[in-house]
Amino acid sequence: MDSELEEVEWANVRYEQLNLISEKMIAAICHHQLYQRRMAKSYDKKVRPQGFHEGNLVLKKVLPLPGEDESKWAPNYEGPYVVKKAFLGGALLLSIMDGEDLVKPMNVDSIKKYYASQLIKESSTIKFSL
Length: 130
Fold this sequence. Notes:
Elements: H1 2-46, E1 57-61, E2 77-86, E3 91-96, E4 106-107, E5 111-113, H2 116-125
Antiparallel strand pairs: 1-2, 1-5, 2-3, 3-4
């Protein structure tokens, strides 16, 4: 009889310990979610979204196909292209400088702005000597 009582007490103690573990796990999950929100908020403060508008000049990232030359000297971007239409989701319809449209829309992640004035300034400062 005495041993049965000890087993019942032992089971109750174990059950309470299991409840404490689940409470601690829930507290840890809540803490992690709060941490994630704080990190996202601080990141969003610093990030400035890059807005593309119709008529902007952009460069398109070159995505090499398997089997093509992937040397480090291969160009990373090609263009310039003109933004024909910008959608809210981050897609852009591009056209070549002569007016011909590209078939597929491009994601904003693979596009960067093209600054023609910087290129002109850089090329005017280069001196060639023979």
